[in-house]
Each structure stands twice: as C-alpha cells, then as structure tokens.
Known about the structure:
Layout: H1 2-7, E1 11-20, E2 23-29, E3 34-37, H2 44-56, H3 72-77, E4 94-104, E5 109-119, E6 127-134, E7 144-147, E8 150-153, E9 160-161, E10 164-165, H4 174-184, H5 191-202, H6 210-218, H7 227-329, H8 332-378, H9 387-393, H10 403-453, H11 461-476, E11 484-485, E12 492-493, H12 499-506, E13 513-514, H13 520-529, E14 557-558, H14 562-572, E15 576-577, H15 581-585, E16 590-592, E17 597-600, E18 603-606, H16 620-657, H17 670-692, H18 702-759, H19 761-778, H20 786-814, H21 826-886, E19 893-901, H22 906-915, H23 922-926, H24 933-948, H25 952-956, E20 962-972, E21 975-980, H26 981-984, H27 990-1006, E22 1018-1022, H28 1030-1042, E23 1046-1051, H29 1056-1059, E24 1065-1072, E25 1075-1082
Helix pairs in contact: 5-27, 6-27, 7-18, 7-19, 7-20, 7-21, 8-17, 9-10, 10-16, 10-19, 11-13, 18-19, 21-27, 22-24, 27-28
Amino acid sequence: MKNQTIMNRKSAKKLLMVQWSRFQNVCIELEGSTLVTGVNGSGKSTVLDAMTYLLTGNTQFNKAAKDRDRTVLGYVRGDTRSNGEARYLRNGSVVSYIAMEFSDPTLGVPLTVGVCIESPSESGKPVSSWFICPGAAIDDIDFTRIEGNALRITPKNELTVNGEAMKLSSFMGRDRGTEAVLRALGLRVDAAKYRTKLLKMMAFNPENNIDQFIQDCVLEPGKVQSLEELREQKRQFERLRELYESLRQGKIQLEEVLRQSDEYEKKKRVLRIRELMLSYQALREKEEEEKQTKNRYQALKDQYGRLTERAGELARQQEAAQERLRIAENNDMVKGMQESLDSLKRQIEEADREKKNWEDKLAQILKLKKKISALIKLLEADLPSLSSENTYLETLEQADGETAKKREAFDAFREKVHRQDGIYEENKIHLQDQCKEREKEIGALQEKIRRLESNILVFPAEVENARNKIQRGLEKQGIQTEVHIFAELVQEVTAPEWRKAVETFLGRKRFYIIVDGAHCHKAMQILQKERIYDGNVVITDKLPETEAVEGSAAEILRIPNVYARRYANYLLNGIHLCENLEELHEYPKGGLMRDGMLAKSYAVAMMDMRRTELCLGADAIRCQLEQSRKELEELQVVQRADKEALSQVIKYRDAIKEIDWDGGHYDFGAAYGLKDCKKRRDSLVKDREEIEANPDFTAVLKELETAGRLAREANESVNQNQSELCGCKNDLKGCEGTLGRISTEIYLCQKAYEEKCLVNMELKEAMLEEYNRESEKRGTIRVTTQLSIDKSKNMLAERERQLEDAQLAYCRLAGIDVGKRGIGYIPWYREEYRNLAHVKVEEAQQKLQEQAGRLESAFMNDFVAEIDENVREAKREMDAINRELRHMPFGNDTYKFVMKEKPDRALFFRICRRLEKYMSSPQVYMNSARDDEEMENDIQEFMSIILAEEDEWEYTDYRRYFSYDMEISSRQGQTEITAELSKKQGSASNGEKQTPYFIILAASLLQCYPANTCCARLAFIDEAFSALSRERIEQMVRYFEENHFQVFYAAPPEKINSIGQFIDSTVSLIVTGRYTNAVEGLVKQA
C-alpha cells in the first residue's frame, strides 16, 4: 500500500515559511499525512493557510475559525492585532516566502514550488509572485542567509537556485502562477474549482443537514449571471407595456372623442337640413300665397264679367229712354234738320270708331316693331343675316303703301326666329341635364370636402362597408383587434414626388383590408359567410418576411405595422424607381417613372394618373383636400358658366315668346288706313258745323224735357253699374299688384334658398325627401318652425359641451394642453387618432411584441439555458462522485448521492423535458413554430415567478432546484440495508454525522486526482475530527490513506493521542515570545 502510494503520489516533503505571520524562518519536515498541533493562537490554521495560498492563491484564511480579518498583508507584516506601534512584527519593506518541496517518484528528483510576497509599506497592497523550481530542493534555494547575528531575507531579484540567479521571467502572477503550480504537481484541474474543493474540506460545518451540506460544500455556487439582464429586459418590457397601455387608453378616449364628434356632426347636419328646410318652406308658403291670390284674381274677373253683362241690360234700358226722347224731339219743325245732324253724327262716330280701330292696329304694329327691334338686337349673334327684311321691318308704322312687302318680311323673320328657337330648346334641355348631374357631383364633392376638413380620410364606401362588416364579425366572436385598410397604415411617403405614380400603380390594392395574422383566417371566413363582394382581405399570416429593397417603390413607404410592411414589400420590392427612360429600359420586369411610365413583365405602358386620388401617408388628407377643392372649384366654374348659358337661353326664349307670331293678328296697312280715315272724318265734321249754325233751328218741346229726365235716370243706373264695374276693376288691379309683390317675394325666397343650396348642395336631396315625407304625413306645407330650429341649436350646444368634456378627458390623460377643446379641434383629434391608432399604437405594439420576444429569448436562451447547463453539470458532478464512492467503501458501508427535483421547481423541469424534443436547446425551440400551448404557458408562468421573486438566489442558484440526500448501504452478513442519511441524523451521534460528510468531501476532492496519474493528492482539515470517537478517527484516517490522500490535519494537543498515532508525523507549534517555532516528531513508525 505504502509503495503504491509513493509511486502514484507526488508527496510534500517540506514546508518553508519565511516572514509569514509569527513564523520568521521555519522549515517543517513533512512525512506523508501530518498533524499540526498546538494551543489556540499558536498558528495551526496559519500553516494550512500558507500551503493553500501557495497552491491555489486562496485568501479566505482561517475559514474554520470564522476569522474574517486575516489578510495576506497581515500575514506578511505579522499582524498581532494589538494596539500601538508594536502591532506589526515587521515594519518597512518586507519580503516573505512560502515554499513546498515535493518528491516525484516517477522522476526521482525533487520539485520546489513557492511564492514571493513583497510588501513595500503597511498601506500598500502586497505583490505576490509564484515560481517553480524543477529538480531543486528547498535547501538548494537561498531564501535566507545569516549575516553576523542577523537573518537576511533574500530579495526576489537576488534569489538563486543551486547558485544560479533566477530569471525575472520565472516569476508569475496569481492566476498563471497557481495554474502552473498545479500542472507541475500533476493536476489538470481549474485552479478556482480546486481551491473551492480544498477549502470546503478544510472548513465545513458538520452541524448542517445533509441537504444544506451538499449545496454548500460539494456543489459549486451557480448564480446565473443573466438575471440582471433578464430583469432589465423585463423593465424594458414593462416600460413598453405601460407606454402601449397608455396609448391604448388614449386610443379608447380618442374613440370616445370621435364618437362625440360624429354625434355633433350628425346634429349639425340635422340642423343644417332644418335650416335649409325652413328656407324651402318659406318659398313653398309664398308659392301657396300666390296660388290663393291668383284664385281671388280669377273670382274678381268672374265678377267683372257679370257687371259687364249687367251693363248691357242697363244700356238697353237707356236706349228705350233715349228712344222716347228721340220721339219727343221728332217733330216736323226740326225733323229734317235733326235727321241730317243725326246722320252726320253717326258718320262722324263711325269715323271715330274706325279711326280708333286703325289707331289700335297701328299701336299693335308699333309694339310689334319695338319687340322685333329688341329681339334682333338680343339675337344678333345667333340669327342669320336680316338685310333683306330689315328695310320693311324698320318701317312697319309708316303709311307708304308697302303692305304686302311688310307682311312678307315679317313671315320670313318669323321662320328664322322659329328655327333658332328650336336650337335654343335643344340647348336648354342639354344644359339643364348637365347642371342637374353636375349639381349631384358638387354635392358629393362638398360632402367629401366637409369630411376631409373634419380630418376624416375618405375611402370608397364599399371598402368602408366591407371593413365594418369584418370588424363586427370579429367582435361577435370575442376577438378584439383592429381591422385596417392598407392605405391608412402607411405613415409617410418619404419621397412625395413619387406618390402619384406609386399610388396609381397600386390602384385598388391601397384599399385592401389588413388584419392581424392570428385572425386572418377568421376574417376570410367572415368574407365568405357575409358574401362581401367589394372587400379584399390580405392573407397576412402567409406574407413572407422581407426587407424593403433599396431603390424600390417599397423603400419610400414608411409603415410601422408589420403586416402592412410585408404586404408593401411584396407588392413594390420588384418595382424599381427610375429617373429616366433609359433607366426604365434596364428594368423590364418592374420599373416606374414619376410621370407614370410603367415597365412590367417586359412591357411598358403610360398610366393615367389624372384621376388618381391620393390616399397614402399622414398627409393624404391634405393632398385629397387640395385635390378635391381644386376639382370643386373647376366644377363650380363650369357650373356657373352652364347656368349662365342656361339663363341666357331661357332669356332668349322668353323674349321670343313675348311676340305674337300669328301674322293674321296684325294689319300691316294700319298707318295708311288711319291716314285715309282721318281725312274722311274731317270732311264730316265740317258739314255738321254748317247745319248747326243754321238760325232756323230754335225750339225744343216740353216732351223733350220729360224724355230728357227719364233718359237721365236711365243714365244714372248705367253710371251706378259702371261705378261698380270700376271698383271691380280696381280690385283686379290690386290683385295684380299683390301678385307682383308676391312674385318679388318668391324671387327673393328662391334666391335665398338657392344660395343656401349652393353651400349645402350635398344636403338638398336629403332635405327634399324629408320635407315631402313630413308634408305628406301632416297634410300641410308647414313642417318646421324657427322654434324647432332653436331647439336643435340648443341640442347642438349640449352635444358640443359633451364633446369638449371628452376632449378635456383626453388632454388630461395624454398630458397635453387642455386648451385644445372645441369643434375647431375636431380635425386635430381625428389626425391625433389616426396617428395614434394607425401609427403610434402599432409601433408600440410592435415594439412590445419585439421586446416580449427579447424577454422570452433572454429567459430561454440565457436564464433557462444557463440553469439547465448548471443542472447538467451538477448531475455530472454527482455521477462522478457516486462512481468514486462505489469504489470507496467505508467499512461495511457504501455511500451514494441522491438528487431529487423539488416539487416547486416542476415548471422548470417540465420545460427542460419538453426541450428534449428540440435537442435540449432553448434557441432551437425559440426559432421553431412554438405551437405547444402548454409549453408556452409554462414559460410565461415560470418567467413571472422568477421575475417576482425578491430573493435573487432562490431561482438563480441551480442548487436550490433539488433536494439532496445520501443513501447509505450497509452489508450485514448476506443482508444489505439501505437508509437515507437525512432520516438517521436525528438519532445519530456527532461522529456518525461527521463521517459521511468527510467521505462526501473526499470523494468530491478525489475527482481532481486521477487514479492512474502520479500527482499531488493533498487535503487539509482544520479543527479535525472534533466530534469523532477514537474508533471513527482511526477509520477516517485509514480511509484517507487507502485512497492515497496526503492529509494535513490541524487540531489542538488533546487530539494527538486520537489522531497522531494513526498518521505519519506530527508537528507541534511552540510560541516563544512573539514568534512561533515548529517541533517535529514521529509518532508512528514505518
């Protein structure tokens, strides 16, 4: 056994401590396992600290004594921890050495490893330099020399080995130095890990339960470093979630503002319709008044006819009275002369009647001439040449004997005018139809402008209808998601000069419907079920994930929504923006120029961009508004021109209608007839005057007087009737005046109504439908009143107040100026909503989803992966220890570690087991389809638990994911009894408790010492076996020796008999004054 141990172990033979604590220059001979003993404070732990510092760079000194105040500086300076100047044994610049000499049975030569510690001052940090001297013993190195009676410590730069100076390159820092020392000792183990295992054995707490002991003393601490990053990702996620929630709440409040705005605008529309209706009603009332006045006028005309008929009867009565008077006057004396006078009188009267007739006919001719002259002047641009007719038409009233020529001229002029009137009739019908159609266009355009001015982006009605149906269909299924139109998701066209060409190319695709990919199939089902023929739903969940190609039409569209972005890339990545025809020629598969030249599928075409309505980008409303206003202005200019032309045509036709064109109603020889009549009448008057001047005509009979009285009475009756007839005539004139006044009022009402129609053209048709419906229902013209309109105004004011309340609530929620209130801000809020709902919320949601992905990625790829790797490493560690334990029985007992998953960590282990389907790689899972719902729920739940835990060690230390125990198998004869250590600890003695702990630590440490390799097999035990019986101590020492350990024990003197007799050597530490010396002595003989 001993020979085998020597052949497979590099054994420590000497330990030199120069100026290390109370050891000034002490070299201790080591023979196998060694017990270092001495009274408390003599430096037992200091010796072990020196060796562990040299071998591993350990600075956790005196761990078993729980003394946290010891430092390298304190050891080098000899800190006595007393007060005053005598606290340190050494002052000024100090050089210390620790060296160990090992024997190498395979090479047969010694090996010395050491560390030089230089401390220039009490406050400066000591500098340690490790070195290795192969083939050299401690005595071959001049660490010290005696000069006179003084001990001189050799400085590092003067150190020699076998008389040869050591090179400065031979000295190494801690990390490289300890690694080199371990390699020189045959160890291929991480220095930090080896240091941890040594220290755990040197100072363990036997009072811990087995679970805690394994966690603290066997397994490496495993705090996951990614927790802070995970928490930072969580904080970022929460910040984005708060931002998203804030924006979402703002969106909800803005929807309320928009709802109130819509209600306000509906009320406003109703009020405008009512005001227009009141104006129309006033016109209808005036027309009704005109109708009634015309009826009265007709009644007066009938009365006038009756009075005229009565006048005939009275005239006959008057004629009888006149006849009597005539008889009375008919006596022989005056008969002849009277008959002559009467005859002349009748002839004169007849001449007067004839003259009056000719005068009327001439007046009619004069009136005709005046109208013809005015008509010729009015129609001179449209009538053909009138040179042949003008000569006679201009002399209609002259007595020149050209009657036949004048009639022929009138007939020819009439034919020309009638032909032109036919043309006017055609123009009138055409213009009326055009104006009516254009009136509808203007109304629709005015409504569109009104919506645009209210910041409502106008999409085709059938697209809006399709969108609303899909939105309602999804909501009925409990799906809360936004249904968008592609155009409204385009935030900006970064190159406005290309806008019209790109939008023309996209055409109706701009109005395709975009839904979240998760709900795309549901939207498709609704499209099919509802038979929505005018909507196109983009299959968002199948769109390829691509980037916008540089130089393509897709690149100029800024789109936050991920699905709209992918769709735009799909449509436009293949369309290259070309500056000229030559460049377009180079892109036959897909190229586009600003002017609309399009190359596609090896063919080119010129797109018609003239009627393209701009819909993309946040400024689409402004562009549409500018375009619509321009279109409205153009339509109104044309409409005004056509109405002016229509008015002119009507004026021409009215002027034509004012002339009676029946030639039979005119006597074109009236001037000549009147001239002849006047000549004859003058001759008759002359003859009557000659008879009346006759002196023989002297008397009148009394009968003549009586007949005269009766004739007067008859005349009075006639006069009375005539008076009534005049009264009726005056009433007729009054009616005519009233009709004239009403006509003027109708004109004014018509004008006022038309002016209102002009600014409310889009409401005219709706108003007329509502008015006719209400008028028919009530059976009256009056369907509204000013009071009703005043009430509507009050309701509108109340709706305005509610709108301002909603606006104020949003201002407070969004933290913006509360002055942004009132109907004037409706467009601003619509723009704010569009920007929020289609841009900011989309961006925030996208960022939130991306951050959720980063959070889950950090959780799975960093945290879970790190924990899983630590767990796997722990299992490998446990398996390795168990393999060692199987070959290291302790008497009749064998030991085995047991690791059990903790129930409260079931989520983690469930996740890890599912990850086995993905090569146990979280990254592979994160890049998969992730359609395992239970897995996703477990991930979310476990992540929430970890991020909510205040004790960061609880979930970051992999050791806490298991409960630990040791299974002890004891063979008693042919029977093997198995028990768990945790269940025996309550009744076991301290020695029984300590024994398994030592075995566990030994097995753990033994992993650093390969069985078939010659290497150092060191172990350090401070305050060794404090609770073990003599028998247990013997068993433990034998156990260590059988497993080839070279153990250095530190224990008080009372343990010499129980420990010292079972090991190779003992070293007693003796305190002399302020320093400590070592006394060596063999207890056990070989």
